[in-house]
Amino acid sequence: MFREMLVRITGTKTLTVENYKNILDYKGNLILIQGKTEDLKITGENFLIEYFTQDSMQITGSIEKIEFQITGKKANKR
């Protein structure tokens, strides 16, 4: 069973994401990550995915904004 995304932020330079499904978009100023019930949108500058595995990834760069975007069935309930 797929669990909810776990996001850890260290200052404004490092972000670790666990339990994600897919990387939907990856640019120097935008990363969009698909989760079970929401997508995670990270904006900023000079992003680099330091590592990623099936279960986790670490992103470095200048993080300016982090947004969750509800997807799927839960989006229709709100």
Give short descriptive properties of this protein.
single chain, 78 residues, mainly beta, six-stranded antiparallel sheet, 1 helix, 6 strands, 64% strand
Write a structural description.
It is a single chain. By secondary structure, the protein is mainly β. Helices cover 8% and strands 64% of the residues. The protein contains 1 helix and 6 strands. A hairpin with a 3-residue loop joins strand 1 (6-10) and strand 2. The model has no long low-confidence stretch (mean pLDDT 89).
Individual helix count: 1
Mean pLDDT: 89
Share of helical residues: under 10%
Main beta sheet strand tally, sense and closure: 6 strands, antiparallel
Q: What percentage of the residues does DSSP assign to strands (E)?
A: over 45%
Number of strands: 6
- Helix/strand structural class: mainly beta
How big is the Rg?
A: 12 Å
